[in-house]
Design brief:
This protein has 341 residues and is α+β, with helices and mostly antiparallel strands. It has 2 domains: 2-81; 103-338, BirA Bifunctional Protein, domain 2. It is built from 11 helices and 10 strands. It has helices at 2-18, 22-33, 38-43, 51-80, 103-116, 131-134, 174-183, 223-238, 290-295, 312-317, 335-338, and strands spanning 121-123, 128-130, 154-160, 164-168, 188-197, 208-218, 244-251, 254-263, 279-288, 304-311. Bound molecules: 3,4-dihydroxyphenylalanine (DAH). 3,4-dihydroxyphenylalanine (DAH) binds next to strand 9 and strand 10. Its main location: cytoplasm.
């Protein structure tokens, strides 16, 4: 609303300055200040505002209304009385408000460029996909209990005889077998960044969020390549004083599997009130399970690979100096919050 009002003011003042005859000024007056003019229309939208916003927006509204009428009035009177317009061309211009990218968009751009520097290729895969790519090809057959962790939205649509149901992708791992199919053979070095959806909403979860998924497949790929890539990313994204570690874990699509931790930005690993033991959890990773390579028609005797998948919002929040108390703020479209980035 604030933005809308400010834009309106700029637009109105620019038109008034440029108006060259009294008819045009009268038309502008009716358009902006008239009974069924734009400002009156906008004032009807006040009802939908939160109480705390109403006062501030109301003040801005009045300011803008009088700015427009103050710009119109003298010009109109000058015309009526035949006086020449008193135009001061040395006055500074009106600067339009400048926007910027959404913080999640900037994080995605930064993450892509970090991986692109070491030869990863940014790919995009469907955000509404078949069960086969989201689960089954990742070594999670239909009734596997591990699927429960993904709290998936299932689309009410006919099933495909081979690919199964349609789901809103609960993770970016659906890009793994799709990329193997696209290229047909290694080497593969992809980073898939996309929206993901899960049935969850609280201070640390939004039903829609983003993940970035790395996948590397080639001859002789081993855990040291995974660790090296993670270390490189952590230093580039979080800064040279942050460290990473791999902690044993379980995923169906990797063997062995890990959770990746990063040292806390406050205590740098010593342990403090905020992180307890010095480390913050970033996300999952591991060596690609041979069954996943087979699902992507890749020779699992000849090739090996590693993969990782992390939440963009989560990773972004762990960057130094950023403490967002409720992740849902990122998507509430509140300009007062977004303006701070
Ligand atoms: N897809 C997993 C999730 O959403 C994260 C993940 C774990 C991705 C391990 C990977 C991996 O590629 O190797 O929780």
């Amino acid at each position: 609303m604030r933005e809308k009002l400010l834009n309106l003011k700029n637009e109105a003042l620019a038109q008034i300055i440029q108006a060259t005859d009294p008819e045009e000024l009268e038309r502008l007056r009716a358009h902006y200040l008239g009974k069924s003019g734009v400002l009156n229309q906008i004032s009807k939208e006040f009802k939908s505002l939160f109480d705390e916003e109403k006062t501030e927006t109301g003040r801005l509204f009045n300011e803008i209304k009088s700015a427009i009428s103050q710009a119109l009035q003298p010009k109109l009177e000058n015309w009526k009385t035949g006086k020449l317009e008193n135009l001061d061309i040395t006055l500074p211009g009106i600067r339009p408000p400048q926007g910027h990218l959404h913080p999640v968009t900037s994080a995605i751009e930064e993450i892509s460029s970090i991986f692109e520097k070491i030869g990863f290729i940014r790919v995009r895969y469907p955000e509404v996909d078949w069960d086969w790519y989201a689960f089954e090809s990742l070594n999670m057959p239909a009734s596997h209990p591990a699927r429960d962790d993904w709290e998936t939205f299932i689309v009410d649509a006919p099933e495909h005889p081979k690919l199964g149901k349609i789901v809103l992708t609960p993770h970016t791992s659906n890009g793994q077998v799709r990329e193997m199919e696209r290229l047909g053979h290694p080497p593969i070095r992809m980073v898939n960044i996309a929206k993901c959806y899960r049935r969850q909403s609280d201070v640390s979860h939004t039903p829609m969020f983003h993940q970035f998924e790395g996948l590397v497949i080639d001859e002789n790929i081993n855990i040291t390549h995974l660790k090296g890539t993670i270390d490189y990313f952590v230093k580039q994204f979080f800064g040279p004083n942050r460290k990473s570690r791999l902690r044993p874990y379980h995923f169906q699509f990797t063997e062995p599997s890990f959770e990746v931790d990063v040292t806390c930005d406050i205590c740098l690993g010593k342990g403090c009130k905020l992180c307890k033991e010095g480390w913050l959890e970033l996300g999952g990773a591991g060596m690609v399970h041979p069954n996943v390579l087979k699902a992507g028609k890749i020779d699992s005797e000849k090739y090996t690979g590693f993969a990782f998948g992390w939440g963009v919002e989560r990773t972004y929040m762990m960057k130094s100096g950023l403490k967002i108390p409720d992740l849902r703020l990122l998507y509430s479209n509140d300009i007062r919050f977004l303006n701070q980035f």
